[in-house]
């Protein structure tokens, strides 16, 4: 009886932790955009537009 309660508690806690992880990951990707995560390595990368070296800061002579 006590083992049954412990098993249910561990199972429910596992579901809550997995759901929180998946939900948090989905929310962060929706907010920041999926293009910031490299699909092969899973690392954070900047989009190509952020790597553009040309700047127009208004200092034209």
Relevant terms:
mainly alpha, 61 residues
What is the arithmetic mean of pLDDT? 79
Order of helices and strands: H
Q: Oligomerization state of this entry?
A: single chain
Largest sheet: none
Rg value: 22 Å
- Shape call: rod-shaped
Proportion of residues in extended strands: under 5%
CA-CA gap between termini: 83 Å
Derived structural class: mainly alpha
Number of helix segments?
1
Number of separate domains: 1
The low-confidence parts are: none
Helix content: 40-55%
| Number of strand elements | 0
Write the layout of secondary structure elements.
Layout: H1 2-32
Describe the structure.
- This protein has one domain.
- The chain has 61 residues and is mainly alpha-helical.
- The protein is built from 1 helix and no strands.
In short:
By secondary structure, the protein is mainly alpha-helical. The chain has one helix at residues 2-32. The relative contact order is 0.07.
């Amino acid at each position: 009886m006590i083992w049954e309660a412990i098993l249910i508690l561990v199972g429910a806690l596992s579901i809550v932790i997995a759901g929180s992880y998946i939900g948090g990951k989905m929310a962060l990707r929706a907010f920041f955009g999926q293009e910031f995560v490299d699909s092969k390595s899973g690392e954070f990368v900047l989009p190509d537009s952020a790597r553009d070296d040309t700047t127009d800061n208004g200092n034209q002579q």
